[in-house]
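Shift notes (night). Ran Glycine--tRNA ligase while the centrifuge was going.
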Amino acid sequence: MSKSTDELFKNVISHAKEYGFVFPSSEIYDGLSAVYDYGQFGAELKNNIKTYWWKAMVQMNDNIVGIDSAIFMHPKIWKASGHVDGFSDPMIDNKDSKKRYRADQLLEDKIDRYDKDGKTDKAEQLQHDMDEALKAEDLPRLKELIIEHEIADPISGTRNWTDVRQFNLMFSTQMGAVADDADTIYLRPETAQGIFVNYLNVQKSGRMKIPFGIAQIGKAFRNEVIARQFIIRMREFEQMEMQFFVRPGTQKEWFNRWKETRLKWHLALGTDAAKYRYHEHTKLAHYADAAYDIEFEFPFGFKEVEGIHSRTDFDLSQHQQYSGKKMQYFDPELDPDTNKPYGNYIPYVIETSIGLDRMFLLTMINAYEEEDLSTEEKQDSRTVLRLHPCLAPVKAAIFPLTKKDGLPEKAREIMDRLKIDFNIQYEEKDAIGKRYRRQDAIGTPFCITVDHQTLEDNTVTIRHRDSMEQERVPADQLDKIISDFVSW
Ligand code: ATP
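Came back to this:
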């Protein structure tokens, strides 16, 4: 069944809604732009992705610990980090449609258009001009490019543009009852700063020695100018970040190590390596001395899923300056060149930062398959989520063959035992074939059927999602069979 990638993506989105993975937020009020809710299976899948990350980062590395810092932080933190002055996108409004766009996005779309039309020279030239303008933060030049390349508003079709302005992406709110400037606080646009400001607390209380890392999973908020491509660009999203503190001078080595380690983490889920690529940043943020993205090939092209950044001592130095508190670490290890301790320094930081929602979408897209099961006799198909069993929201479903003769009771008895360790579903409605299809659609790796023979010899039929093969096994071996597949 070959489908265009556009169609496939649309199908994944509607599948995600139909089967309780992702709903538009506030849907009964016509939704809230770029905000989504995770449904009953989405929440499970998301939790399993978090667990996979947490285990790989925190549990498997004895020099990495995890924290959970508050979303609200002292406003000076965002001054120190550079977000108040610099965390913005260039935006432009169309005076007729009154719609707001990211100027760079309009230009990117035009570049794609040129590429699609085979106008490679024009595409390359525009890319170059745009990169130059962005690097120089030359906002009038961005507008000039929009005019020169005759970019029209997709809604009004007109080219009646305002000037390009910088638009800060942080959401702000007031803390306490009195609304004056001093009380303005921000919803964090990244989780990293919560790690930086706690780095000495963790180092001291955990007696951590460099190199060590601090990991965190949590919500981040960005008032994205344009939000599109489903959960790729949301205004409220989740990040899984790890800051690794290293001795200055060793950052290159650690950067390369984390770059490789993180790609391996992605590939360990069985994803085709050809779907991933590294993208090296040539235009580095002011604080970085190296940056790579790990990109995944979504149906709409390669997009960043994770960033690995060498952030130097920028963040800790800034916090030292703004807070007036020392951010230094005393390194007792002997420098082989001088035979003296390395002594006091502000550590350098390597960051790995992955968007949980993008990882979620990647996982859904990768797993989704519309499989043709037609034979010469009859047409048949199924939609199956071939999720890695560790990530599957439901690990096994239990079906009594019929609703009578004590089969439901027996099925529930088996389920009650299994549910202590695994997320299990019980289903007795509809024919077995239909029940299989429903479980395939949510990615359940095993379906267990309890029939009359079970009552005699305590064996059940277990059906495997991917091969659709069935085998008869003793019910008391189910724990082991399931855990062999789903344990980490
Ligand atoms: P982009 O260039 O796509 O806006 P970014 O470079 O601003 O992303 P980072 O600040 O490096 O992203 O954030 C780290 C990760 O957080 C990204 O790799 C991405 O997976 C995720 N992320 C960032 N912004 C969003 C968003 N608006 N919605 C969902 N995930 C996001």
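Residues 79 and 85 are 7 Å apart (CA to CA). The first helix runs from residue 5 to 18.
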